[in-house]
Structures are given as C-alpha cells and as structure tokens.
Amino acid sequence: xxxxxxxxxxxxxxxxxxxxxxxxxxxxxxxxxxxxxxxxxxxxxxxxxxxxxxxxxxxxxxxxxxxxxxxxxxxxxxxxxxxxxxxxxxxxxxxxxxxxxxxxxxxxxxxxxxxxxxxxxxxxxxx
Amino acid sequence: xxxxxxxxxxxxxxxxxxxxxxxxxxxxxxxxxxxxxxxxxxxxxxxxxxxxxxxxxxxxxxxxxxxxxxxxxxxxxxxxxxxxxxxxxxxxxxxxxxxxxxxxxxx
Lengths: 127, 107
Known about the structure:
By secondary structure, chain A is mainly β. Chain A has strands at residues 3-7, 11-12, 18-25, 34-41, 48-53, 59-61, 69-74, 79-84, 93-105, 108-111, 121-125. In chain A, strands 2, 4, 5, 6, 9, 10 and 11 form a 7-stranded mixed beta sheet that branches. A 4-stranded antiparallel beta sheet of chain A has the order 1-3-8-7, with no helix packed on it. By secondary structure, chain B is an all-beta fold. Chain B has strands at 4-7, 10-13, 19-25, 33-38, 45-49, 53-54, 62-67, 70-75, 84-90, 97-98, 102-106. In chain B, strands 2, 4, 5, 6, 9, 10 and 11 form a 7-stranded mixed beta sheet that branches. In chain B, strands 1-3-8-7 form a 4-stranded antiparallel beta sheet, with no helix packed on it.
C-alpha cells in the first residue's frame, strides 16, 4: 500500500521560505510511471495544484506560482520536496503531497489523477 | 487555465435521496475529469476517474457521467457517511484545476 507523509515547519515568517518534504513508502519514487505532486488548500477554500516533479528531477509548476516555487527529488531517501519563497499570509494553507499516474494527452505528458494523498500539513505564515 | 465550475456550492438532502452535482469546464476536456470526496480534516479521496470509472473499493451508489464540457456526479441513495465536500478536477492540460467544491449536508 502506497503511503505519503508530509513533514516540515508548521510556522513560517513572512518573506521567508516555506520548506516541506514528502516521504513515500510502499513504492519507489524512481518508478517511471508517476509524477509526484504538491497541492494546497487554504482553510475553508478549494484546492490548488502547485506543481509536480518526475524521478529525473524534471518539473512542471503552476504558472501562478512559478517564480516562487522549487521542487526537488531525493531518490536515495524516497522523498521529494517543496520550497516556496517570499511567503505571505496568503500562503497559509494545508499542504498535501500526492502521486499522479502519467498519461499522454494530445501529445503532452500529464498526471491523470491524484491518488493517493498524504494526510496534509498545516503551514501558517505569521510573524 | 481551464476553469471548472461546480454547482451547487452546497446541498442539503435526506438519507436515501438521489443527489446530483454538476461540473462545467470552460473548454472541451473530453473525459479527462475526476471526482474527489473530502471529509472534514482529511485529504481528498479519488472516487471517479475519467469521468465515469469507479475507483476500486468505492461503493456503487457513486457514479459519474459526461464528456466535453458538461459532467455530473451522482449518489443514488445518500448515506450518512457521504457527508463531505466533493470536488471535480480536470487533467486535460497543465495546470490541472479543481472546481470550487460542493458541500453536502444531511437534511
């Protein structure tokens, strides 16, 4: 059974960098069949895809955050990570990691769903 | 980005009722549409993929249909454990986006 678990600081100061790690168990992150994703959800609001990373380190980011987001992968630890810089209160949210099976749609590789998800971790941006 | 519009935003129904939620995409997304259930304090759970395929282990009272721009999600007989917020999500291109959610309550 594949499981994902987010970890990282729950409190980040404004203008600093949010850093989270997702640890994958029950499957190898080196599998070529999946993207590994980050999604966030502000309290009482909807879901926003932040981006994903492939085992090679190749990434796709949401254009709305592209200038502030960096994702990386550590296959030796079966982990992938998120860094979001210059955070503000608007970045306060529950952050989830998830697995995306890869599918080719109109000649472009996309993830075709998010399954499974980690339990989520609340990150608050406050001084 | 493709916009996903769900309706209604909230819904109150009785146990045993048939419930239907709609999701409209801002452009043709074929059948590249998933449905998720999110219970309070929990991560979303995939219920339906490719518009109409039931994820393994999901009760058969859940169903989905549609293609192109218009999709529906139904629960044939509402159960107390179905109380949750439901989201549609497209994967036709990047970035994938979600509907704003439909909060389902028991009347």
